[in-house]
Amino acid sequence: MKLHPVVAAVTDRIRGRSRDGRERYLRLIEQMASRQRGADRMGCANVAHAFAALPANDKFKVVTERAPNLAIVNAYNDMLSAHAPLGGFPEVIKDEARRQGATAQVAGGVPAMCDGVTQGTPGMELSLFSRDVIAQGTAVALCHDVFDGALMLGICDKIVPGLLIGALHFGHLPTVFVPGGPMTSGLSNNDKAKVREQAAQGLVGREALLEAEQKAYHGRGTCTFYGTANSNQMLMEAMGLHVPGTAFVNPDNELREQLTREAVRTVLGIIRQRRFTPIGQLVDERAIVNALVALLATGGSTNHLIHWVAVARSAGITIDWNDFAELSAVTPLLARVYPNGSADVNHFQAAGGPGFVIRELIDAGLMHDDALTVREGGLREYTREPGLQDGRLAWRDIGPSRDPQVVRPAGEPFGATGGLKLLQGNLGRAVIKVSAVPADRHLIEAPARVFDSQEDLLRAFAAGELENACGVNGARGLVCVVRWQGPQANGMPELHKLTPPLAVLQGKGWNVALVTDGRMSGASGKVPAAIHVSPEAAAGGPLARLRDGDRVRLDAVAGTLEALVPPDEWQARTPQAMPAAIHEDNQHGLGRELFAGFRRRALSAEEGACTWL
Questions:
Q1: Residue 223 assigned ligand-binding role
Q2: Largest alpha-carbon pair distance within the chain?
Q3: Helix (H, G, I), strand (E, B), or coil: what is residue 112?
Q4: Parallel, antiparallel, or unpaired: how do β-strands 560-563 and 551-555 relate?
Q5: By CB count within 10 A, which of 3, 9, 248, 369 is most buried?
Q6: 226 neighbors 366 (Cβ within 8 angstroms)
């Protein structure tokens, strides 16, 4: 199938825009790859230190026999249900490496925080910046420089982007990403959301809410909604950085260990065969566009409009939100997975999963099927699903959709366009996840109520102020604006706790929307939310000019976000400064002092909120 002209044009534009940066990057990784291997290049004391703890046989292999030595960078902890299974992976990897005549070492661990634990707390203000800490931790692990390839063990929100950013700064190394899979299905996401809305209204108490939450989040593995963590896995498949079909196999499925062993064989295959493709060569403009298309076709996480900008930068590639918007306009929505449907990721996998979506996109000319992957068979290998045959891995064709309510072919999509939309106007540039928002809510025009924190909004809701404001002067609605939530202000936390109260108002028939320079997480749902507003208020952005009562128009159809204030009056307004109390509160407690430099250096959301440039 010929490549869609818009996909081709966006790719060419990215390639042209990135030419100088990409060429510099490729020259650097070529220089790094052309050096002698570490054990031959480094001083004897360095080599002795590097391999002192290895068993004698492994030490002999890597030093004397010059066997490949693999780095394991592990995001294991047992605070994250998704990462708890990773504790046992290194021994499996080391065992398989030995079987293949190689060695493997845990080069380092990186932090992995759970946004589900920190939602609505000051700890969430470290969340976005943890991505860059993870990238730095990956660099610390790999800077020992005695490795011939790497395996990245991670799954969740900031962890995979952080590992990928770090790995791309060691782009001369062949690298494979190794996930752990989702937990089994518990309480449905729809039922969980209903209980949350009941709790927001005071109809059920803490005991009932906790019971529902524990039924939803109940075991080892990734949370089962299609948020940032599971969007990560979809993108890793689309970029060809996984063993094909690895993303959504449950941790305790016997297939999981075999897929982890196959990851070892895959990275060794790249090292040993003529087709040497380190990760820096593999992640090119085609791979980045493939990731964006896969995100849009599945209604994935809005967080990736930040993360993949940073990922691309790490490979010498520059992308922006216009690229997302143009691809979204021609990418059909092929999946309905919560929050833009009722299915969870286990249902998605059973219906055909990533392989079905990737096949449909390739066949529709919407993905680059000539993009490099960690497998010799290229991206077509990612259109098949793995299984066990006589105890050995085997891949088979997925066939047609096994549930048309969950995944559909490109010729019969759920929607003609992707799940994300760019908004722009005198309030700046923002994004909205439209795939989960009812069509009659794509246009909201109502008076603004401006808040300086999410806590202020929650207090106003509890006091009945928001519902009262919805009916003032026949307004029939309200646009809630929460500012001072960008990267420079407080680390750009997710404001997911705001969804239940706003959903309650919407359920009562009011026209409500959220506008913020913060994030709303991969679980952005049915309430229209213009998020990531850039430039942010703390940088003098337009939200700092907005006042209570100004009419705001959020139009996801036309792609606009406007304060309906006369232009002369709007320009005459002096942007307000962040209230001193808010600024002071953002600086202290729960380790936030350590991230002051990150806040000062952070770029805008559209620039990836990068802190290392």
A1: yes
A2: 83
A3: coil
A4: antiparallel
A5: 248
A6: no
Residue 232 · residue 157 · CB < 8 Å: yes
**Do residues 417 and 432 make contact, with C-beta atoms less than 8 angstroms apart?**
no
3-class secondary structure per residue, 143-187: CCCCCCEEEEECCCCCHHHHHHHHHHCCCCCCEEEECCCECCCCC
Measured CA to CA, the distance from residue 486 to residue 516 in angstroms comes to 8
Residue 257: pLDDT over 80: yes
Range(s) for CATH 3.50.30.80 in the chain? 420-607
Nearest CA to 496 out of 196, 79, 182, 113 is that of: 196
pLDDT tens digits for 483-516? 999 999 999 999 988 988 999 999 999 999 999 9
**Helical segments of 241-303, H only:** 254-272, 279-282, 285-297
Instruction: Please check whether residue 33 is in contact with residue 67, taking contact to mean a CB–CB distance below 8 angstroms.
Output: no
Q: Which residues contact 591 (CB under 8 A, 6 or more apart)?
A: 126
Q: How far is CA 568 from CA 418, 537, 540, in A?
A: 36, 20, 18
The answer to whether the Cα torsion of 409, 530, 127, 459 is positive or negative is negative
Q: Which residues of 41-50 are buried (b: 16+ CB within 10 A; e: fewer)?
A: ebeeeebeeb
Quick one: tokens of 546? 């907005």
Other Cβ atoms less than 10 A from the Cβ of 13: the count is 16
Q: How far is CA 219 from CA 181, 196, 257, 501, 592, in A?
A: 12, 20, 18, 28, 30
Place of tokens 């990409």: 22
φ/ψ of 70, rounded to 5, equals -100, 135
- H helix runs in 34-79, sequence order: 38-41, 44-51, 56-63
- Mutual orientation of helices 321-328 and 285-297 as an angle, nearest 10°? 60
Who contacts 301 (Cβ-Cβ below 8 Å, separation ≥6)? 226, 227, 228, 231, 295, 521, 522, 524
Q: Show the tokens assigned to 112.
A: 């992995």
List the beta bridge partners of residue 179.
Answer: none
Place of tokens 């504790």: 87
Residue 334 has which token pair?
């092929």
Q: Please tell me the pTM assigned to this model.
A: 0.96
Question: What's the mean pLDDT when you consider all of the chain?
Answer: 95
565-568, Cβ contacts within 8 angstroms, sequence gap of 24 or more? 565/426, 567/426
Type of residue at 181: G
For the packed helices 228-238 and 285-297, what is the interaxial angle rounded to 10 degrees?
A: 130
Q: Using the predicted structure, report yes or no on whether residue 217 has a pLDDT greater than 60.
A: yes
Q: Which two tokens stand for residue 187?
A: 């309480």
Residue 392 DSSP label: E
Residue 497: both structure tokens together: 């706790």
Taking the domain 420-607, which CATH number applies? 3.50.30.80
| CA atoms of 297 and 311, how far apart (whole Å) | 20
Asked whether 345 and 226 are in contact (CB, 8 A), the reply is yes
- How confident is the model over 58-104, as pLDDT tens digits? 999 999 999 999 999 999 999 999 999 999 999 999 999 999 999 99
